[in-house]
Specification:
With 341 residues, the protein is α+β, with helices and mostly antiparallel strands. It is 35% helix and 24% strand. The strands form three sheets. Strands 1, 2, 3, 4, 5, 6 and 7 form a seven-stranded mixed beta sheet that branches. Strands 11, 12, 13, 14, 15 and 16 form a six-stranded mixed beta sheet that branches. The protein has a three-stranded antiparallel beta sheet with strand order 8-9-10, with no helix packed on it. Helix 2 crosses helix 3 and helix 7 packs antiparallel against helix 8. The longest helix is centred in the C-terminal third of the chain and has 17 residues.
């Protein structure tokens, strides 16, 4: 019945939007699922599910590849019936997207159920998200990141901040409502600037104490209340390395789930050649230094932990290609090489 309902819905949508692109039709279908609980509940019976266990995504290792399986609704029900809680758990899923053919995708965290049973049934394992983002196909990384962020948000917003009463999510998980006060809560992201500082011929990279050994990256920091992006860039560079930004250029943005749901706003910043002496804030950084083009090119070729120096420390390496910091560094390299050509 659900399949027939969705087929009729897709047919009607197709007739109404025959002049619209596939993308527009998909976005409008997703919006309908978010606004219509009945439609979304029907979609849960024929959609696919990305599974998590205490916010760790489920992966399958096939050869040397890690795949993110889309588990069917029927398979989910079969597994959940082993725990005799099928209907209850499906309701906890959240909508995270859909295919061009309008097959909806949901994320479901089964953290309260026995992990080994699920892993055995589906022939895979739940993996820490930090590792998962760097071993799965690049197209799957954003979906896993956004799914975990949404699941985390629901877990931490189960009560109204004004009344203290329980909040209830809609079926799609696009909002939570406090029925005692009428307040509607929507998932939010925190804006963070990530800035690659250059003096024209060198770029500045730094290490935080939490970084893997040997890894250097661009400077980053949360936007303060009332700041625009330009003000945040200037302040963060001044706070962390004691330099004054002369000009800056926006590059791109990326959703990043650490430490929570963040919007990384990537920028290039230029400081004056005459004012390049670093005054590092040791409360935030472990090390900060200038790198020339040759050092950057060598660092980009290194794998994590691949090269040790005589004192036992690792030679510098940089964030992998899935991270927007990698994109900033490559953009700087291209700019430098074009100037030398």
């Amino acid at each position: 019945m659900a399949a027939i309902y969705q087929a009729v819905y897709r047919r009607a949508s197709s007739l109404m939007c025959r002049f619209h692109s596939t993308y527009v039709r998909k976005i409008r279908y997703l919006n309908d699922l978010k606004e219509d609980d009945s439609l979304c509940r029907q979609a849960q019976t024929s959609g696919t599910f990305y599974l998590f266990h205490n916010l760790s995504p489920f992966l399958q290792e096939v050869g040397k590849q890690y795949l993110v399986p889309q588990v069917s609704a029927a398979e989910i029900k079969r597994i959940l019936e082993k725990f005799k809680e099928a209907e209850q758990w499906i309701e906890k899923s959240v909508l995270i997207g859909c295919s061009d053919e309008h097959v909806p995708h949901f994320a479901l965290d089964l953290g309260a159920l026995e992990k080994s049973v699920i892993e055995s049934e589906l022939k895979g394992s739940f993996t820490d998200l930090r590792k998962a983002l760097f071993v799965v196909d690049q197209k799957d990384s954003p979906l896993l990141a956004s799914a975990q962020s949404l699941l985390r948000w629901h877990d931490s917003h189960q009560y109204c901040s004004k009344t203290g009463q329980p909040t209830q999510k809609n079926v799609a998980g696009s909002k939570r409502v406090c029925h005692a006060s009428g307040i509607i809560y929507y998932p939010q992201m925190s804006p963070v600037v990530i800035t690659l500082v250059s003096d024209g011929s060198r770029c500045l990279l730094a290490r935080q104490p939490s970084f893997p050994q040997g890894m250097y990256s661009a400077l980053s920091g949360f936007c303060d209340m009332g700041e625009n992006v330009e003000e945040t860039v200037r302040r963060e560079v001044a706070e962390e390395v004691g330099l004054e930004v002369e000009s800056f250029q926006y590059s791109a943005s990326q959703h990043w789930p650490f430490p929570s749901s963040c919007l990384m706003i990537a920028c290039h910043a230029l400081v004056r050649e005459q004012q390049t002496e670093i005054s590092m804030n040791s409360l935030e950084l472990e090390e900060a230094r200038w790198f020339d083009l040759e050092e950057i090119m060598k660092g980009l070729k290194r794998k994590p932990g691949s090269s040790k120096q005589e004192d036992g420390s690792l030679l510098p390496w940089f964030p992998p290609k899935q991270a927007i910091a990698h994109q900033l560094i490559w953009e700087w390299v291209k700019q430098q090489t074009s100037q030398l050509a």
